[in-house]
Every structure is written in C-alpha cells, then in structure tokens.
Amino acid sequence: MDASQVIFILSAALIIASAVMVVSTRNLIQAALWLIATLFGVAILYAVLDAGFLAVVQVVVYIGAIAIMFIFAVMLTSKDMRDKGPQVNASWPGAALLGLLTFGGIFVILSKWDGLGKLPGEIPGGADALLAKLGVALTSPELFVLPFEVASILLLAALIGSVYVAMNKK
Amino acid sequence: MIPLSWYLYLSAALFSIGLFGVLARRNAVAILLSVELMLNAVNINLVAFWRYGNTASMAGQVFAIIVFAVAAAEVAVGLSLIYSIYRRRNTVIADELDLMKW
Hints:
The complex is a heterodimer of chains A (about 170) and B (about 100). Helix content of chain A is about 70%, strand content about 0%. Chain A has six helices and no strands. The model of chain A has no long low-confidence stretch (mean pLDDT about 85). In chain B, about 75% of the residues lie in helices and about 0% in strands. Chain B has a single domain (about 5-90), classed as Orthogonal Bundle (Helix Hairpins), CATH 1.10.287. In chain B, helix 1 runs antiparallel to helix 2 (about 30-50) and helix 2 runs antiparallel to helix 3. The model of chain B has no long low-confidence stretch (mean pLDDT about 90). The longest helix of chain B has about 30 residues, at about 60-90. With about 100 residues, chain B is mainly α. At the A-B interface, helix 1, helix 2, helix 3, helix 4 and helix 5 of A face helix 1, helix 2 and helix 3 of B.
C-alpha cells in the first residue's frame, strides 16, 4: 500500500463520516460545518487526482462561498437552531431503502464492468502543464469558450433572480 | 496507485447518502445541503474519469467547473426561495409547504 492509497482511504473515511453527519445532525449549523469537512475531503481527492486547480476552486468557491451562504441561510430562517420535533419525515425508511438500493444497483453494475482495475496513465508534459492547458481549453473558441460564457450568464441570471425573489416588496 | 473502482464506489456511497438526505430530511435547508453532497459525488466521478481516461483533453475538468457554477447558482436561487417562503409562511419545514398540493 503506497502513500496515495493511505491518503485516499483517510479522505474517503472523512468524506463518508461527515456526509453521514450532514444528513443526520439535528443542529443545522453543525450540519453545514460537517458539509465543509466533506468538501475538504473532496478537495484532497482532487489534489490526489492531479487536478490542483479544482482543489483550490473547491476550497474557494464551495467552502468560501457556498457553505458560508448555507450558514447565513440557517441563521436567517430559524429562531432556534435546535428546532424541536423529528428531523426526518414519516417516509424515511423508504428513503433509506432507496438510498441502499441505489448504492447496491451502482455496485452491481460496476462489478460487471471490466475497466474497474484501471490505473492512472502518465500525464503528457507533466502535471504542471495541466493548468495552462485548462486555461487554453476554457478560452479557446475551438474548445469550451461557449459553455464557459453560458455558465457566466447562468450565474448572472441566478444573481438577479435570487435578489428579486428574496427582496422585500413592501 | 489507486484503481479507478475506489473513486467510483466512494462517489456511489456519497451519492446514496445525499439521496437519503434529500428524501428524508424535513428542513428545506438540510435538503439543499444533501443536494450539495450529490453534486460533489458527481464531480468526483467526472474528475476521476478524466484522470483515468485521456488527460490530453481537458473536457472532464471543464465539465467539473461548469458543475461548480451550476451548484453556486442553484444554492443562491434555492436559499433565496427558502428565505422568501420563511418570510411569508414562517416555516422552512418541507412537509408544511403544501400550498400546491391537493
């Protein structure tokens, strides 16, 4: 077992344990903090996968912006952080069954696939050349500049829409 | 060297946990938290297939960045909807928001 496998197992344990806490904690502020732990674990996996830029974006955008927005939303929408009553609805056994069935189904389908033991190939030009290639891919008209611009228009529409929806119209 | 299957099983588990959270939690903010778990599971898959496939093309990483943008837009609109509902009806429990149910 080499170093990358140890890092993977530790971050996978962090991801799964904190994801279970996200869906089971009563206190929503704590659930948002556990989500931050999950996102950190995913950022570690991106770094292991030689996607360093995505690891940084994960920390800056997901943890720095999205998770903080969740904490603001929890504070704006609850008088008491420990709200009383059950945290899960009446059909939660069905939801748990469906989750297990989804995992089991994916597991069975994957176990019949022959590409499972595939190992990562060599990166041409080394991992450091990837960031320049990603920048070229995002701005080159032959590659992905159109999806990139569509994503920015989507963000602008979401910005205007969320301000309009949350605005006090009185 | 990590086999591809480890990433796929991890993201399947993360997706299933998120699916359980979406279906079972009562608080609308907690449902959005679980949606974030599912989006992250998808992103792990995208980046893992990019790394184990053809790294000469950056399509996998670009797709993951688009998913980041969509997740940010979804959270912004979703949370402002929840806040608006909270101001009008004074609750964020999904069971009690049955205005469109008959």
